[in-house]
Task: structure prediction
Amino acid sequence: MEKLVIQGGHRLVGSVAASGAKNAALPILIATLLAPGEHRLANVPDLADISSTLSLLGRLGCPSLVGPTLRVDTTRIAFCEAPYDIVSRMRASVLVLGPLLARHGEAIVSLPGGCAIGTRPIDQHLKGLEALGCTFELSKGNIHGRTDGLRGAEINLDMPTVGGTENILMAAVLAEGDSIIRNAAREPEIVDLANFLITLGANIEGAGTSEIRVSGVPRLSPASRPYRIMPDRIEVGTYLVAGAITRGDVTVTNCNPDEVRSLLGKLTSAGATIETTDTSIRLIQDGPVQSFELITEPHPGFPTDMQSQMCALACFADGVSTITENIFENRFMHAAEMSRMGATIDIVGRTAIVRGTGAMSSAIVMSSDLRASAALAIAAMGADADMPEGERGLSELRRLYHLDRGYENLVDKFRSLGARLARVEDDESDPAVLLAATQHS
Ligand code: EPU
Result:
């Protein structure tokens, strides 16, 4: 196993291109199951979660070929079971329920269980699929779904769940008749999935609003042209926050500023200057970071997936920031690790009270989940900034596999902005070797 070694205190300056969005690519790859034939997808990021999804499709009998344009062949579905070893690695595997039931009439998915950020039930997925004509039974830790034909329905979600909306939408496109999904999630990834489904021949209106209307069609077929996955707005945000933490000047290209408006507003209130074009965002952090208040909400509110990175930024602010997490009940695992770097964070219910001191120090820290890892990595990039370079320590981020799930080419991208970091073997502990690894040209 590897760890990430980071020497902080280097201002990030330059430009980096956003990769394709993990959370759009995952449901879109799974949606290929709906239309028999060969699908071509562009801008699919090279990530562990994508490999897991391709293994899952492979287990169902659908081979894929990775390349600049990824190909998936869903001509034949040979099996309809998502096994525990893949579901436990990647919760989004549960999204095969809708497509498998719609195309195959049967699906077996291992129950995902809890994860580091919360219990994450799937009751809304099942409620919507039941309304469309599926039945479910639970046995030996698996959910076994069956249907003798999907029929359109009106579904009122109790909360605007992203995965639930995606699962139900993917089933509804092949149901007989019309469906309405109310209180639907409005995330840009839902719009990307709907746009993909439309290229397969689906009838969908209202994606991106809280009411999605679907008119079912008897069959779908692969599009004639490759579908391009949207840019990863959380990756975009992570590079911008790293720019703010290091008082840098960072431009992210190949992105859509409209998809990160709530974040840009928060970064401005933290003292950054933001300049946008249609496809790029530049962040300049000249002065000290100002403290701020933040509440996570479903889109278009502030995204939970940027909460831990903003918590890292708050540690570098002068003053007290408050961060309220409304989406997941246990998404402050990074706080204890940040305190190892000198942060003072009190958790009161769903709110983190961050007493920023303007500085953090290097430390060995442990990842608990994907976004917490990103937050710790960028906190480390700002650590020891008040010291002369020769006296700065090194931070180590353990359990790197979390980061590999969601950030394509992270080391090279941050290096291109001037960060000093390297991947090294977990058991490498010689300070001279570690320092040398981070001091690339
Ligand atoms: N929820 C239920 N019942 C359900 C579904 C959801 O109670 O049937 C609850 C969840 O427990 C949670 C809240 O509703 O408290 C929101 O969950 P949602 O279903 O919206 O999240 P998700 O689909 O499981 C996706 C992203 C997450 C992101 C959330 C929220 C993917 C593959 N994952 O998860 O991304 O945090 O939406 O925006 O799209 C990440 O990328 O690091 C990540 C965790």
The mean pLDDT is 96. The two ends are 25 Å apart (CA to CA). The pocket of EPU is lined by residues 23, 26, 92, 118, 120-125, 159, 161-164, 185, 303-305, 327-328, 370-371, 406 (CB under 6 Å).
